[in-house]
Amino acid sequence: MVAIVAPLVALVATLGVVNSVAPTSSTTTFPPATNAPVTTTTATPRVTLSAVGDTELGNSPQLPSDASSYFAPVKAALAAPIVFGNLEGTMTNASTSKCAIPSTQCYAFRVPPSYATIYRDAGFTVLNAANNHSYDFGTVGAADTTVALHSAGIVQAGLPGEIGVVRDGTLKVAFVDFAPYANTNNLLDFSAAAQLIARAKTLANLVVVYMHAGEEGSSADHVTRASETFLGEDRGNPFAFAHAAIDDGADLVIASGPHVLRGMQFYKGHLIDYSLGDFTNYENFSAAGDLNLSGILRVTLSDTGAFVSGRFTSVMLHSSGQAFVDPSGAAATFVNQLSKEDFGPSAAVISPRGAITPLVN
């Protein structure tokens, strides 16, 4: 992975914290038909967000024939005031990648900058840049991606020191994203992560932590509770980092990176989803076995960060890597199995209707 940091750090420092305001709903109230006293009640503010895992819409020049409609089968299921996803790759026209020679172990993902509007039209409001592909085309590609997202009205999070702030109604939500690299917010540095989470808490009412962590592949669906490696690279200890993030003040932890689903658990009343898998994967990775299972996580939090409700929508990737809602619920069944095996009484459980609750209330 290219590890040239300085130019992009300067760019992030210039940009500062990015804010994007999501549309709020309005309600029309009519007066009562009688002269009875009017009782006014004020609902407690809440935040609702949807989150998905890794998304990549191809690698120029290998792109979908109709990229603008690629998210169409899942757009309705994604809909929420805040929609988060991991952007696996770059939005750039740069031509020099990190892969010096063709290799089955080196991938460099690139789509045109115009694809940012495809994400925005699908409902995405915040995208993650803390992963092992954000510098696939060096600092130029990373900078181009930032510009493309901001131009489309999408908040970015995850570059060094970068916190993304979005809004649902009157509440602000800070996204603090981490990956095991020095040219992102580094999840291998627990002390620095704690400081960044503390800063996020001063910027918003609620804090969501994302981690791009863990081993990759069809055999990587269990949370080992140990440091995980892939191709000799330290990918962190997802279990320890997620728990530390909540101890440091995070209200929700979400993740991807292993390219497969992992289980969910509740820790101190807060939900942790250890991997949402791949969400779109145009013609680049296998979509066989558990690699084709994905999901959409929808969570509502109170204004104090308490878990109010959650829902999991099962998704399946077709052979081309395009996501479709799966009425069979295969992904939910798989996640339930993993959650119970890995977390026992602290497991989160997905009901047949998709509702998420603690296994033990």
Describe the structure.
With 361 residues, this protein is an alpha/beta fold. The chain has a single domain, classed as Purple Acid Phosphatase, chain A, domain 2 (4-Layer Sandwich). Helices cover 20% and strands 28% of the residues. The protein has helices spanning 6-15, 75-78, 116-122, 138-151, 190-203, 238-247, 330-343, and strands spanning 18-21, 46-56, 82-87, 90-91, 110-111, 126-128, 155-157, 164-168, 171-178, 206-212, 229-230, 233-234, 252-256, 264-267, 270-273, 278-281, 293-302, 307-317, 323-325, 348-350, 356-358. Strands 2, 3, 6, 7, 16, 17, 18 and 19 form an eight-stranded mixed sheet that branches. It has a five-stranded mixed sheet with strand order 1-8-9-10-13, with helices on one face. Strand 8 and strand 9 form a beta hairpin.
Can you tell me the CATH topology? Purple Acid Phosphatase, chain A, domain 2
Number of strands: 21
β-strand percent reads 25-35%
Helix content: 10-25%
Largest beta sheet, briefly?
Answer: 8 strands, mixed
CATH class: Alpha Beta
**Number of discrete domains:** 1
Poorly predicted runs of 5 or more residues: 1-36
Radius of gyration: 20 Å
In CATH, the architecture is 4-Layer Sandwich
Tally of separate helices: 7
Shape: globular
Q: Span from first to last CA?
A: 44 Å
Element-by-element helix/strand order: HEEHEEEHEHEEEHEEEHEEEEEEEHEE
CATH superfamily: Metallo-dependent phosphatases
Instruction: Find the structural class using helix and strand composition.
Output: alpha/beta
- Overall residue-averaged pLDDT value: 89
